[in-house]
Design a protein that fits this description.
Layout (H helix, E strand, L loop, with lengths): L7 H30 L4 E4 L9 H10 L8 E4 L7 E7 L16 H15 L2 E7 H13 L3
Parallel strand pairs: 3-4
Antiparallel strand pairs: 1-2, 2-3
Helix pairs in contact: 1-4
C-alpha cells in the first residue's frame, strides 16, 4: 500500500469497520451458542462498542462507565475457585498475541490486560480469545472446571 496515496485514509476506515464487524459477528455467534448449549448459565455481553454514539451519549457513557477496557462477555457462574468468567473476544489473527505467544504492546490491548489483572484480583477467570472456537473452548473448560 502506497503511503502517499490520498485514498489510504479511506482504506484504513474500511479495514477498521470490517475488523469491528468481524468481532461483533463472533460475539453474536458466541452468545447464541451459550444460550442454546447452556440455557441455565447467566451471562452478559458488552455491546457498547457496537455502534457509534452521539457526542451527548458518549459523554453520558463516560460518566456512568469511565472504563473502556471491560471484557466483552461476563459469565455469572462459579467454577472452582473463580466467581465467574470474563472473555475478551478478538477476531482470528487479530495481532493480540505475538508469534512468541506474548501479548501485543498495543495501547488498547495493554489497557484490556490491566483490567484483566484487576478482575483476576477479585476472583474472576479472565481470558483473551481469538475467534469463536477458542472462546467456546475457554468457556467449556471453565464450566467443566478443567
Amino acid at each position: 500500500m502506497n503511503k502517499h496515496d490520498p485514498m489510504n485514509q479511506y482504506k484504513s476506515k474500511t479495514t477498521y469497520k470490517k475488523r469491528n464487524y468481524e468481532e461483533q459477528s463472533i460475539q453474536l455467534q458466541f452468545c447464541k451458542w451459550i444460550k442454546l448449549q447452556y440455557p441455565d448459565i447467566k451471562f452478559r455481553s458488552d455491546i457498547q462498542s457496537a455502534g457509534k454514539l452521539s457526542p451527548q451519549m458518549q459523554n453520558i457513557k463516560t460518566i456512568i462507565d469511565p472504563f473502556r477496557a471491560w471484557p466483552d462477555i461476563q459469565v455469572y457462574h462459579k467454577s472452582g475457585n473463580y466467581c465467574g468468567l470474563q472473555i475478551e473476544l478478538k477476531r482470528l489473527y487479530s495481532g493480540t498475541f505475538l508469534k512468541d505467544g506474548s501479548l501485543s504492546s498495543g495501547k488498547h490491548v495493554q489497557e484490556q490486560n490491566e483490567m484483566h489483572i484487576f478482575l483476576r484480583s477479585l476472583g474472576w477467570k479472565v481470558e483473551f480469545s481469538e475467534g469463536f472456537d477458542e472462546a467456546k473452548r475457554v468457556f467449556e473448560s471453565y464450566v467443566n472446571n478443567v
